[in-house]
Amino acid sequence: MIITLSALILVRANPHSKKQENPKLDIQIRPFQLTDLDRIYYIEERSFPHPWTAMDFMNIHERDPNGFLVAVRNGEVLGYIVAEIITSLGFRDFRSKRRGHLLNLAVHPEFRCKGIGTVLAKAIVAYLKEKRSEDVWLEVRRSNSIARSFYSKLGFLEKGRKLRYYFNEDAIIMTKEL
Ligand SMILES: CC(C)(COP(=O)(O)OP(=O)(O)OC[C@H]1O[C@@H](n2cnc3c(N)ncnc32)[C@H](O)[C@@H]1OP(=O)(O)O)[C@@H](O)C(=O)NCCC(=O)NCCS
C-alpha cells in the first residue's frame, strides 16, 4: 500500500504563534521496511522517556506488516505509526468484534506541527477501517497534553484511565468509532 499525499498545509515553529502559509508538503505513506529501523529508533529515542527497543519494532512488524506505516519525504523517514487489530468475543452476544489498538506514533522533532502526524493517523485509521475494525483505542500519558489535544482534534474521545499504566504515571484511554 503506497499513498502519495500532496497537501497544502499550515506550519508553525511555535504552535501558539500565528500560523504561516507554507510551501507544499509532499510525503509518501508506506509500510515499514527493515532499512527504516535505524532512523525510526533515532526518532523514537527523541520522542519518549521510555523508548521501544529495536526488537519491539521488529516483533510488531512481524505480527502485521501493514499495521506499521512510515511517512517519507525524499527517501527520509519523518515519522511512523503502529497499530494492531484485536479480535474479542462479546460477553453478552458472543459476537466477535475487531478493534484497532494504536500502539505507537511519533514524528521527528524537527518536523512536528506540519500535519505529518495527522496524515499518519488518518492513514492507519483507513487501514483499520478497511480491515473492518469497529473502533480504535489508545493509551496516552496523562501529562502528554500535546498528544491528547492531537488525538482530540482527530475525533478521539477520552473514555477512561488506567492507573499507573506507565509505572509512574496514569494513562488516559482515548477511543474513536470507525
Ligand atoms: C503527537 C505528535 C505525533 C503530533 O504530530 P504532529 O505532526 O506534530 O501533529 P500535527 O501537525 O498533525 O498536528 C495536528 C493537531 O494536533 C495538535 N497539536 C500538534 N502539536 C501541538 C502542540 N505542540 N501544541 C498544541 N497542539 C498541538 C493541534 O490541534 C494540531 O492542529 P493544528 O495544526 O490545526 O493546530 C508529535 O507531537 C510527536 O511525535 N510527539 C512525541 C511522541 C508522542 O507523544 N506520541 C504520541 C504518543 S500517544
What does this structure look like?
The chain is of the alpha+beta class and 178 residues long. It has a domain at 29-133: Gcn5-related N-acetyltransferase (GNAT) (Aminopeptidase). 24% of the residues lie in helices and 38% in strands. It contains 4 helices and 10 strands; from the N terminus they run ββββααβββαβαββ. It has helices spanning 37-45, 54-63, 116-130, 145-153; strands at residues 3-7, 10-11, 20-21, 25-31, 68-73, 76-89, 96-107, 135-141, 157-162, 171-177. The strands form 2 sheets. Strands 1-4-5-6-7-8-10-9 form an 8-stranded mixed sheet, sandwiched between helices. A hairpin with an 8-residue loop joins strand 9 and strand 10 (171-177). The protein is globular. Residues 4-23 have low confidence and may be disordered. Bound molecules: coenzyme A.
Gap from first CA to last CA: 20 Å
**Radius of gyration (Å):** 16 Å
Helix-and-strand structural type: alpha+beta
State which percent range the strand residues make up.
Answer: 35-45%
- CATH topology title of the domain at 29-133: Aminopeptidase
Could you give the order of the helices and strands? EEEEHHEEEHEHEE
Share of helix, binned:
10-25%
The chain-level mean pLDDT equals: 88
Q: Please list the strands of the largest sheet in the order they lie side by side.
A: 1-4-5-6-7-8-10-9
Sheet with most strands: 8 strands, mixed
User: What ligand molecules are bound, each kind once?
Assistant: coenzyme A
Total helical elements: 4
- What CATH first level of the domain at 29-133 would be assigned? Alpha Beta
Task: Using the 3D structure, state the CATH architecture of the domain at 29-133.
Answer: 3-Layer(aba) Sandwich
Low-confidence runs = 4-23
- The coarse silhouette is globular
**Going by CATH, what is the homologous superfamily of the domain at 29-133?**
Gcn5-related N-acetyltransferase (GNAT)
Count of DSSP E strands? 10
